[in-house]
Design a protein that fits this description.
Homotetramer. Helices cover 33% and strands 21% of the residues. It is α/β, with parallel strands linked by helices. The structure holds adenosine-5'-triphosphate and nicotinate mononucleotide.
């Protein structure tokens, strides 16, 4: 099937060939008619997906149920396109497969969407509009006892990602206005990116930004997981077993063998891991040798 192009909201959206939204776990009926229906979308590399990526949705779900008038109809992971060209990014096809294994085996309500992954780079504003189009225009929104209603598409992100919204030159002002003003976001606290600071600098959209403090601090990152694979260290319990098997079968993050001082310099240059000191850093004793490697986010 040829790529489809259709105009919508902020941008013209293009579907990859044979694309269809995964919706088998999307709730199509609103249980409480007084609540505002929402779908959560997490954008990122997922290189690879970790348990904490899944846990972000559970943290948000608890917060939403206890503090808001929203009703969650579904949650999606949207891996970024290969064109994002971040250091060490394995192919989108593999990152989508890993997210699918993780969501299918570990969750009863999360799904992965390949629209963003399997085409040219798409800004987050366009990704959220794509979900809006698929869920509200193609599927017709959600059924309520008073008829169909539109679903609000909301971004779920860590405070490091939302922090980049205040950095000059990273996001366009129009996109920020669209993502934060129109869609809205839940922000999960991440070690090293203080929630207060992140939200204060986006004060004009404060009403649509929901900061969520972590009750259990967890600073796992995909970078650390990749480094562990490359050093031949155990990654058990940091990510689902099925994802670990998939990575090993496809040799996605090859073991470099014992690491020398020279190699550690190269890792730092490639952006794969920051080996400099930081407040959030931790000393990890390598089981491959006697060296102590300092890891940070
Ligand atoms: N430990 C964590 N705490 C809070 N948010 C997190 C955490 N890990 C990932 N996230 C969030 O998950 C989303 C997707 O993250 P991403 O795939 O970039 O993972 P990452 O661990 O930051 O990756 P990398 O280490 O490759 O930069 C982002 O919004 C990010 O902020
Ligand atoms: O839309 C934008 O302008 C924009 C600017 C910066 C980052 N993003 C998105 O934020 C995500 C960052 O992922 P990562 O792995 O680099 O933390 C990824 O999905 C990017 O497409 C999006």
């Amino acid at each position: 099937m040829a790529a489809q192009i259709f105009a919508h909201k902020t941008t013209a959206l293009t579907n990859p060939p044979n694309y269809a939204l995964t919706s088998h776990r999307l709730c199509r009926t609103l249980h409480t008619s007084t609540k505002q229906p929402i779908v959560l979308v997490a954008c990122g590399s997922f290189n690879p997906i970790t348990y904490h990526h899944l846990r972000m949705f559970e943290i948000a779900k608890d917060f939403i149920q206890q503090n808001t008038n929203f009703e969650i109809l579904g949650g999606y992971l949207s891996p970024v396109s290969d064109e994002y060209k971040k250091a060490g990014l394995v192919s989108a096809h593999h990152r989508v497969n890993m997210c699918a294994l993780a969501t299918e085996q570990e969750s009863s309500w999360l799904m992965v969407d390949s629209w963003e992954a399997l085409q040219t780079y798409q800004r987050t504003a366009a990704v959220l509009d794509h979900f809006d189009y698929e869920i509200n225009t193609v599927l017709g929104g959600v059924s309520t006892r008073d008829g169909e209603r539109d679903v609000q598409i909301m971004l779920l992100a860590g405070s490091d990602l939302i922090g980049t919204m205040s950095e000059p030159g990273v996001w366009s002002h129009d996109d920020l206005d669209h993502v934060l003003g129109h869609h809205g976001t839940f922000v999960i606290e991440r070690t090293g990116a203080a929630l207060d600071q992140v939200v204060d600098s986006l004060a004009r959209w404060r009403n649509n930004i929901y900061p969520i403090a972590q009750q259990v601090q967890n600073d796992v990152s995909s970078t650390k997981v990749r480094l562990f694979f490359r050093r031949g260290l155990s990654v058990q319990y940091l990510l689902p077993a099925a994802v670990i098997d998939y990575i090993e079968q496809n040799n996605l993050y090859p073991d470099d063998g014992p690491c020398t001082e020279k190699d550690r310099g190269k890792e730092s240059e490639s952006g794969e891991v920051d080996t400099t000191s930081s407040e959030s850093g931790r000393n990890v004793q390598s089981t491959l040798g006697t060296e102590t490697t300092r890891l940070s986010n």
